[in-house]
Amino acid sequence: MLNGILWDQRISQDNKRRIYNAVDGCEVWQLKKRTQDMLRVTEMDFWKRSAGISRRDQVCNERVRHIMEVENDIMFDVMTEQLIWYSHVSRMTEKRLPKKMLDWIPPGRRRRERPVRGWRQGLLNEIRECQLPGGLWEDRVLWRLGVAECQRAL
To answer: What CA–CA distance (Å, rounded) separates 26 from 145?
Structure first.
């Protein structure tokens, strides 16, 4: 669907970057390793097509990122959005529906196909890897600074 737009040289790189940034809702994605790999491959395919680089050109990914002026990997962006969303919902009162949904544990056993690691567990692993203190999410400014520091460290 976007193939014609991505290869069109008349469309500026800034507009192509805006199309990329229009992906919404990543703060609630539950990502397995395979899904993360697929997202990274799709992201690089997007940037290469936007830059007009084909596979025959054999340009490395870092060079493509430099050409397209892309700083972060898509997984860094997803992780940042998830951490910001988590702090936002955690600051809500107990009566708000998003807060209730975040704290809700479904009754009964998990089905066989269900992933062992849920969204919250993955997020808590990210918080642990970034070494963010436990109650830091209560202060919005400090939390965002901590997330930004974590992103720079990775």
So the answer is: 20
